[in-house]
Sequence to fold (277 residues):
Amino acid sequence: MVIKIALIQLKISGPKEKILKNAVDLIRIAKKEKFANLVVLPESFNCPYNEADFEANAEEIPAGMTSQALSQAASDFGVHIVGGSFVELCDGKLYNTCTVWGPDGSLVAKHRKVHLCDTNIPGKLEIEESKVFTRGESYTTFQVGETQVGLGVCWDMRFPEFAAAYRQLGCDLLIYPAVCDTYTGEMHWELLARARALDNQMFVAFCSPARDPHATLVAHGHSLVVDPWGQVLQKGTEYQEIIVADLTLKTLPEARSQIPVLQQKRTDLYELVVRKK
Fold:
């Protein structure tokens, strides 16, 4: 089996209705013209990544405008959609949440960002997500055919144990919608994607918004897909575009049998314990 994945590096500007229309138009192109069966949107895709905009754009899931648009698009085009992330309002709390929609328009998974980004690089970047969001408390997986897919959102990518737990849970593909700034993006973006893929012998996809030089947080862009050997299959520019890659699943047993590191781990000396809540 081959999964054709399409990362939609979306331009995020203007009112929510305009952004959603643009996203749906690109989902249609990804399915109808690029023949993708799995389409991914970036983090905070329905409004700019800006603390001042988060609460105003928060929605309930699945009742909100964004959920309804993604559900309809998935059904109309018969495709799995990983709906990037947007601000979820639930019981008076805000979450940075990724939704997944099946080809029949059903909500098949929901991942609340587990690791919140609190970082301070003097003169470069200051973010304190824990002031705004409540963190998620669980792993999230779903199926595309027989392939198990794991989800993270942005900062989740920086924790190797989190990715290793997904491998232990049987995942063969990890997807991270993300808004990474240009400063750390130049240093870490591709490195993190290749490390998560190589360490766990999995496919890994990072999906970013397009770069907007006028945004509060300027995104790095360069969405990419990496194979289980740690090689970049496809990588975008900083502009709005659709990045498409074929995930040839036979690559997985080849990599794992030829370099059997997962079998060679010294569990007598160290061990990963996956705790489910």
Remarks:
- The longest helix spans residues 182-200.
- The mean pLDDT is 96.
